[in-house]
Specification:
It contains five helices and five strands. It is an alpha+beta fold. The strands form two sheets. A three-stranded antiparallel sheet has the order 1-2-3, with helices on one face. Strands 4-5 form a two-stranded parallel ribbon. It catalyses: a 4-O-methyl-thymidine in DNA + L-cysteinyl-[protein] = a thymidine in DNA + S-methyl-L-cysteinyl-[protein]; a 6-O-methyl-2'-deoxyguanosine in DNA + L-cysteinyl-[protein] = S-methyl-L-cysteinyl-[protein] + a 2'-deoxyguanosine in DNA. It is an enzyme of class 2 (transferase).
Length: 166
């Protein structure tokens, strides 16, 4: 069955690899140079792999199996300069840690940009690898997640159970 990505129909022409999780399928989208997007889906799309999508799928499978806490992949997310700045700041949140929207707003140089940071976080096309799931409210509570709060809880739980793999 070839199901198009719900979030990323513009990447249908790219190479795809699939990772099976207990919370659905991860479809990994890559071009010849870099990873472009990851999408959680409830149905298994048809794979059309290349080296980058295969490597991303392998690293994501290791992460889900608690055998990896860092990723080593070329990334090329599409977004505005501000979104890319936020996503770069997310990459600095270490495995098993969390940060607030305010923390990221401070990192990007505007402590009043919490809502803009939240919007950029929600537009992150490469979840898990660019760890937008690690963003929580200032009060320590879970906030929205484009892939669903159940999946956010799953990812945070996965990281808290794994501890440091180093």
């Amino acid at each position: 069955m070839n199901i198009q990505s719900v979030r990323y129909p513009q990447y249908a022409h790219l190479y795809k690899s699939i990772v099976v999780t207990s919370h659905g399928f991860l479809t990994v989208f890559a071009n010849d140079k870099a990873l472009k997007a990851i999408d959680f889906t409830d149905t298994h799309p048809l794979a059309n792999e290349n080296k980058i999508s295969q490597l991303a799928a392998k690293q994501l499978s290791e992460y889900i199996a608690n055998k990896r806490d860092q990723f080593d992949l070329p990334l090329d997310p599409d977004g505005t300069d501000f979104q890319k700045q936020v996503w770069q700041a997310l990459l600095d949140i270490s495995f098993g840690s969390t940060a607030s929207y305010l923390d990221i707003a401070v990192v990007v140089g505007n402590k009043n940009a919490c809502r803009a940071v939240g919007a950029a976080n929600g537009k992150n096309p490469i979840p898990i690898i660019i760890p937008c799931h690690r963003i929580i409210g200032k009060n320590g509570k879970l906030t929205g997640y484009a892939c669903g709060l159940e999946r956010k809880t799953y990812l945070l739980s996965l990281e808290s159970k794994a501890g440091s793999l180093k």
